[in-house]
């Protein structure tokens, strides 16, 4: 394994353990999700090339967690969100970031570093009517697209190969207009979350996990019960319906992807910060 990747995984696992403890202390519900859930089921830990951790929380628990720790989480770690003391991700979800291990994530042509992190995705209810549900998701995705445009116009984009002609045109126009000067990312993130939280989970047949469009709509019943599942020699909460959930999202999830796709999603160019003397 890449030595730097192992350092990142070790650091974000520390964050997960602290997060789990805080949720238990405050009786808050969460589930490991996306690649973290897949890794737990297929590998009993990290997908070997994964460099982050994904969590989802029902909206009520999500908001309670932020209200408790928006200003101070734990020594060496902090919440990163539009309604927290620090907002560096410019995302509609919040993260718990490390101040100890940094990842290189350049913005445009400028060198930029972010803390190794875990992502916490809110889980929201959806309209019962299919047409209303699709309309609701479209609205959310429009706001999310504007948020990405706002963020990129202020800070630039990462290097992505093989962009489509349409994407290149949008990027050029955005550089000229600079939407972020008129609609800051924090305002769009707040608008996104205000719209997403309109529907109560308990009254919904389906739930939506921010911000992946139609592919992140799941039957609410998959989350009605919780099971503890092994991840890196500890157990964390997972949806009882994880098999159906993973199949819906990944298909044949027990078969690893080809070697060409087995690479970290973010960066393994890291910087370890000196620890202050106590």
Features:
alpha+beta, 7 helices, 37% helix
Could you provide a short overview of the structure?
The protein is built from seven helices and ten strands.
Notes on the structure:
- The chain has helices at residues 3-25, 34-43, 59-69, 130-155, 165-177, 185-196, 242-250; strands at 31-32, 53-58, 77-80, 94-104, 113-125, 206-209, 217-219, 226-231, 234-239, 270-272.
- The protein has 278 residues and is of the alpha+beta class.
- The chain has one domain (3-272).
- Strands 1, 2, 3, 4, 5, 6, 7 and 10 form an 8-stranded mixed beta sheet that branches. The chain has a two-stranded antiparallel ribbon with strand order 8-9.
- Helix 4 (130-155) runs antiparallel to helix 6.
- The longest helix has 26 residues, at 130-155.
- The protein is globular and about 45 Å long.
SSE blueprint:
Layout: H1 3-25, E1 31-32, H2 34-43, E2 53-58, H3 59-69, E3 77-80, E4 94-104, E5 113-125, H4 130-155, H5 165-177, H6 185-196, E6 206-209, E7 217-219, E8 226-231, E9 234-239, H7 242-250, E10 270-272
Parallel strand pairs: 2-5
Antiparallel strand pairs: 1-2, 3-4, 4-5, 4-10, 5-6, 6-7, 8-9
Number of domains: 1
* Oligomeric composition of the shown chains: single chain
Radius of gyration: 19 Å
Kindly state the mean pLDDT as a whole number?
88
Q: Specify the helix fraction band.
A: 25-40%
Shape: globular
> Which stretches are low in confidence, meaning pLDDT under 50 for 5 or more residues running?
none
Strand-pairing-aware structural class: alpha+beta
């Amino acid at each position: 394994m890449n030595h730097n990747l192992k350092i990142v995984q070790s650091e974000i696992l520390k964050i997960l353990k602290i997060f789990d403890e805080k949720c238990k202390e405050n009786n808050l519900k969460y589930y490991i999700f996306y690649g973290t859930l897949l890794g737990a089921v297929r590998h009993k830990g990290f997908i070997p090339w994964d460099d982050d951790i994904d969590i989802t929380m029902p909206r009520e628990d999500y908001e309670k967690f932020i209200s408790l720790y928006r200003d101070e989480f734990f020594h060496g770690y902090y919440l990163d969100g539009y309604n927290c003391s620090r907002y560096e991700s410019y995302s509609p979800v919040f993260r718990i970031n490390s101040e100890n291990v940094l990842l290189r994530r350049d913005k445009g042509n400028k060198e930029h570093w972010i803390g190794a992190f875990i992502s916490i995705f809110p889980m929201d209810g959806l309209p019962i009517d299919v047409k209303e549900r699709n309309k609701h998701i479209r609205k959310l995705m429009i706001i999310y697209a504007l948020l990405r445009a706002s963020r990129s116009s202020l800070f630039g984009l990462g290097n992505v190969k093989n962009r489509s002609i349409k994407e290149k045109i949008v990027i050029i126009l955005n550089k000229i207009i600079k939407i972020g000067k008129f609609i800051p990312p924090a305002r769009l993130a707040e608008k996104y979350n205000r719209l997403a939280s309109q529907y109560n989970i308990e009254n919904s047949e389906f739930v939506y996990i921010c911000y992946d469009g139609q592919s992140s709509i799941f039957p609410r019943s998959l989350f009605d019960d919780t099971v503890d599942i092994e991840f890196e020699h500890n157990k964390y909460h997972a949806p009882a319906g994880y098999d159906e959930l993973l199949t819906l999202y990944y298909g044949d999830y027990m078969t690893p992807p080809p070697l060409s796709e087995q690479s970290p999603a973010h960066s393994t160019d890291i910087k370890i910060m000196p620890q202050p003397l106590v």
